[in-house]
User: Fold these one by one.
Assistant:
Number 1:
Amino acid sequence: MKKSIFLITIYAMLLSCSTEKSEWKILFNGKNLDGWVEKMQHHELGENYKNTYRVVDGKIQINYDGYDKFENRYSHLFYKKSFSSFHLKFEYKFTDQWLDDAPIYTYKNSGVMFHSQAPETILKEQDWPISVEYQMLAEAEEGKSRPTGNMCSPGTEVIFDGEMDPRHCISSSSPTFKWNEWVQADLIVYGDSLVIHKVNGIEVLRYTNPQIGGDVANRYDPNQKLDGKLLSEGYIGLQSEGQGVEFKNIKIKEL
């Protein structure tokens, strides 16, 4: 297995060198949500309940000022196009909004999903898309470590340190950041082979062979959950699960 990981790493390096002249594409224009679509639990595709997703001062903002309660409205804002091998860059910062009827783990917690099932295949009462997640966390208790740039796997699994890892989330080696601090994230994905997470330009996690499997996602169409199927492409989605957050400078380079 170690030899396999080594070969994947070499392949990824060669692919990166051969595509370094690719141009960056802006996914968010800083003005509106053109090119993005909402999918929220309890709601139909494209319904932006209480203006949860909005553009404020050149940033995509996940805002709950119109809510009385969260009521399990897990949702994602998906970009219109799927991607296979890519380098995604974005910056994020949490806000002081948190709906206290959301699970406690959602506090100062959000994420960006990738290799996700198509948004139109997500059922009305499905909570999370079958996907892999670049998880974003911030300090919840002063002085207590809470790294960001982690991996979570709703309805998926990955190979970590040479073997299938049963954990839903795998922590990165990043430091802990204050909730109101802008953080730069990099997600580098080579199809169904190698995935690299970076935080402020420093690699903090890598794993291989993202594939369908495991639990956590609920009330999905069983035709979408083909356990063991390697994920070589899919959609990118910004997560909303009760914690306010802002995104800016979202861009991608296809590899």
Number 2:
Amino acid sequence: MDKNRTKNTLLIDGSAIVHRAYHALPPFTSSDGTPTNALYGFITMFLGMVDMFRPSYLAVCLDTPKPTFRKKILSTYQAQRPKAPENLSLQFPLVIEFLKVSHIPGIAKAGFEADDVMATLSELVQKNVPDSHIYIVTGDKDILQLVNDGVTVVMPKSGIRNVDLMDSTAVYKKLGIQPSQVVDYKTLAGDPSDNYSGVTGIGPKKASTLLSRYGTVENIYKHLNEIEVNIAQALKTYENNALIAKELAQLKMNVAIDTSIQDLIYTGLHTEQMLPFLHKYTLKSIEKRIMAEKSEVNTSGKKQKNQLSFF
């Protein structure tokens, strides 16, 4: 992290974390039978991230039920993904309720994915708070295209407890490319998780090799005569697929959201309303941790870093 960056910004992909929590934790319910495993996992991850990064600016970004602009580009985009289980769908409103009582901005925009909203907020912070380092919490590799000296992606790697910090070095180690090449990488290799192909016949390894040599997709097409015949032919045959893939992979940095930098200022946990919420949904272990933290703060006058283990 750049020593000149004295503040932290935390952007959390709420939808991705809720999904991960639901599948990582066994089913359990509140006292009235409401399913709460995804809610519990999200709150645990949220509090752990806040405790770890101590943000000055904070937002949770969410998907919306409406189709995104990518669906208009490719009708089969993400079509292979199964419908969310009912017990998972029931918990998204609870997560939104938690954000409201905690005074945490939950930001979504119909027609766009949470990734696009995070990209837009990342741009907003970089322009307005240049001394802030941005940490983006998500399991979606699309967001790796945003990594730079001031942006690190925090990726859960197992369950909801263990994470990888993805800076430029980590991205290169994982994919063999620079973060600025992630869109071109997906342009060539496609993305099975989002159900779109790039250039048929070019997989991840070949994509990284070509980009290492030529830098960009545009430059690759300028040097087709230098590339092995079967790969060059595939690039010609599936050029339209590549154009579509690039449009799908590129995150939007200018989503029209009604959010200012002041809206993202984090002033700490609002436990007065949070505690009744936790009690309502029988999240006893989190409730006890928050109460213990309040007691510690009241006793010492300040909170010690990492005094509670939320992970």
Number 3:
Amino acid sequence: MKTLYSVEGIINRDFVGQIAYTISLGETYHKLDIGFAFDQQRFTAEEITPELEKQVADEVSEKYGKTLEGAELRQAILSDMKTEIHTLAMLDDTFIGCIHRQLTERHMIYDGDYATEGCIPTASFEGVLKVVVLVFNVIKDGTHYRLWIQAE
């Protein structure tokens, strides 16, 4: 497959929003792979510091009125907190897919009658492709992401 577009970026803690990329397809394609990857989805045990524990405990108390401490707090940091980013695609303003997988790398694949779950099979691609990175939660500063589009 031929790479049509590739971009990388960095998002920081607490960012919530959308980042849209618009690509004008110079010719007609019949297969498409929209790939997306990011790092730092979860905290590791080594990253848990007294400062992080205090910060999370304070935020949970403020937002939810709940007190977390000790093993329960560590478990929440390791298991419940995560960076959550999804991808959505449109072709000439027509929705062709959105995936919400909790994977740090995922693909939206279109191949004639087949499409990745969450996507609509599309026979050909021409015109304007818009890919929207939907950022719901980022838990660490300096979270890197990469978006790439390949086609045949």
Number 4:
Amino acid sequence: MEQEGLFGAAPAATTTGGSLAGADESYAGQPLAVRMRPRALDEVVGQDHLLGPGTPLRRLVEEDHPMALVLWGPPGTGKTTLAYVVSRATQRTFVELSAVTAGVKDVREVMERARRELVRTGTGTVLFVDEVHRFSKTQQDALLPGVENRWVSLVAATTENPFFALISPLLSRSLLLTLEPLGQEGIEEVFDRALTDERGLGGTVKIDDDAREHLVRLSGGDARRALTYLEAAAGAATGSDDATITLQVAEQAVDRAAVRYDRDGDQHYDVASALIKSIRGSDADAGLHYLARMAEAGEDPRFLARRLVILASEDIGLADPSALQTAVAAAQAVQLIGWPEAQITLAHAVIALALAPKSNSVVKAIGAASSDVRAGLAGAVPPHLRDAHYSGSKKIGHGTSYSYAHDDPRGVVEQQYAPDSVADKQYYEPGTRGAERDYAERYTRLRTIIRGE
């Protein structure tokens, strides 16, 4: 199972004794991404929202407090790296478990060893659990005694939403930290270090600007991937006279043609804009062209998926309510199956969204409602709609005259729901295309009953 970190893959072996003091002593045979892994918090690129002065993580590390951390983020953002840095900075024993292979027995053995070590020598243990979302409820329960009794400082990494993937007792005892993909500047900083640092390439190769831009773009915010590409390109360049990574060398090294975007990013945004406008304009073929163009240029598929999800509500909306389901399913599939197979799923979504009937009534409706709120039209909630579940609520008139819609055979009653300040407003203007024709009729009928018109 591939373990990941901000600058590379973690060793497969579990370190069961001592800190990481000697882990960096020899780089022979190690991938560039491993050699360039940060050794201290200040060497970590990106994640400033987690590592800046006074942040909870920095305080925990600098003050050497026991901790329980859940690190949530996509691959290559630094989850494994932060676990190593925490262990190194606090001089604790580092133990690594993979949720793919470890069972309840393994977890309990680690906890018992950590407890004995703490009692015998006073040395704490950092337990790093990669892919913790793969642990069953029973396996996650086995982590709780060590966390509660502070036998270990738990660092659990996951690419899945922890609110769904982790049990509540474990999540409630942990500090949840969300890691973000590195931006272009972050990836470029990673490149600069790797090119010049003695742990990396030590200035033995040069790189042309267009080749650098190509590799940065292909990385998709994943530092490990960026260094893997750079190492492959550097290896290909060492056979040339001047050891320079050219665009051709970079393309051959990562087997991906460069569909050029200009350095300032205008082409990137132009092509993304053209993709959305082609789908909005119902031209499936143009949409597929721009999708392929961005995919071949190494665009992050998650970026493409997010754009399609936004478009589904913004430009199709209630004209075809299934469009949003299609776009969300495509985005989930991108996360599930990855590239290059996800390109087929995105093409599926592009065609479906391009052929769907179009309506922008939803975006206009929320825009109009937000405009009134910003203008100060946010009156008090009508008394009959206020919470009436606490003692004494009825004495102040809360909920006393509320009409329960299910008591009416029609399932709807005449009643004021909006504050007085916007009681007569109509934000939603139904369109006339696709399924929204039916919504228009239903909206008019319900509004007539509710407002007694």
